[in-house]
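Entry:
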Amino acid sequence: TNYEDMSAKELYQLCKERDLDPRPKKSAEYYIELLEELDEEDETWDDSDDEDDWEDDDTDSEDEDDEW
C-alpha cells in the first residue's frame, strides 16, 4: 500500500480499520509510521508452519485422551 498518496484523514480511518488506536488530528506521517510498524509485524509473523503443527498435535492429543 502506498500510504504517501493518502490524506491524513484516510490514513486515520485505515488505522482504525486495522484495530490501531490512533490519536485524532495528527499528521499523515504519524499515521504512516503506525501503519508501517503494523505492516512490519505482519511480515515477520508467518503462521503457515504453525497450522501444520497444530493439525498434527490435535491428532496426537486425541490418541493420548484415548489412553486415559
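The radius of gyration is 20 Å.
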